[in-house]
Amino acid sequence: MELKHIVRRAVRRWAEKIASKRAQRQAHMVLPSGSDLSKRKAGRLEVAGSMAGHIGETTVAESRPEAFTRPTSRKAEAHDAKDNAPAHLDHRLAAFAEERYELRHNLLTGQAEFRPKGQDAAAFLPLTARDLNSLCLAAHEAGIPCWDRDVSRFVASDRLPDYHPFRDYFDRLPPWDGKDRLDALAQRVSDSALWVSGFRRWMLAVAAQWMGMGDGHANSVAPVLVSGRQGLGKSTFCRNLLPPELSAYYTDSVDVANTARMEQLLVEMGLINLDEFDRIPVRRHPALKNVMQLTDLHVRKAYRRDTLRLPRIASFIATSNSHELLSDPSGSRRFLCVEVERPIDSTDIGHAQIYAQLKAMLLGGERHGFTAEEEAEIQRANVAFYRTCPAEEAFARHFRAARPDEEALSVSLPELIALLRKRQPGTLTGIGMQEFSRALVTAGVERRHTEKGNRYRIVPLEHEGCKSAILSE
């Protein structure tokens, strides 16, 4: 009996397997009479159970003839399969989306953008996850059986035309009418001759960078609008330098300590305003000047694992409510400082003709970089905007730089620091040797290299006892 039971169980399992395979073949060959997939699955399970209970008695088709019907047209079945094939589905989805929307791929942000078809006055908007889901649902309503991944693949493909905001803007500009407008634009801020000429050169560099005509050189100069008074419209003028069509590519939200974010802004923005420049710590100035000189950058875009080498687009401008801005005389050539003495009129800026003029000048071969002579002139003018160094102030109270033909004291840096601390305790607290050395050079003190190290030629403002005090150190 035990052997008979084992055999019977084995036969039953074999019959169940055969019944299941037959049911699957029948399901592929015929269409279910039910209205959805659940009925088809239920029919298969019921047939399999019937086969297990009545081994060999009947086939699935014989036991439940009402469960399946033969298709009325194999041609119709083939047509449906073709409509749902991946290639044809992608084509239907693309046609559906392009019929309803204008789509493009923004080269600066790396995002897909859209606006409804026929609404030319509407602005393009970034295509968000919510928009993608809405597009997928609308496609379902139109009878396109796509998945959200199909929609995402479509908008991330080269089916969307590339769009460069700045190149597109310059391509659409009208011809220049020949009237110069750059000097008048600069004079809204100041009538200084250095400012007017420097602003013209800077605007040419801005346009060259936007047009991709930088020739491998970055626009490393930044105008700085300075005024102790607030409410003169410095930031408004900076913002309004961009035409309305490009206003999204202006930012004054900057963290100079975040180098990665700064580099990303260089390839995504057109103009970066270092608002309240005087609040940037002196220790950040070297890193900032390094960023200002970058040309091509390796940036990782959102949702990408690899980095892309992208050209720089952005230029810098700055504002300040304090005149004490600069600390490094050699690096000050990067900043075109101008004092704002009156409210700035930022209304009715004729952007189209201003940028048409810049485009015509650049295509005509106009130089857009500053010469060494121009940078030296900027550097001389920036003396009025140097940040007062406590060490320099302390030095100026007791000493001055020696003239070339004058008898002077020759002291080392530690000797001078020790003397100043005796005369004015606490003055040099927190000031390093390197910073103090730069302060002496800024004050015009001659530095000579000797066998005993660097020596500085100085003259005490009070001669009594000064020399002996130094020598006693």
Automatic annotation (TrEMBL):
Domain (DUF3874): residue spans on this chain: 388-458
Domain Virulence-associated protein E-like: 175-384
Bias (Basic and acidic residues) ranges: 74-83
InterPro entries linked to this entry: DUF3874 (IPR024450), P-loop_NTPase (IPR027417), VapE-like_dom (IPR007936)
Region (Disordered): 61-83
Name of this protein: Virulence-associated protein E
Gene source species: Paraprevotella clara
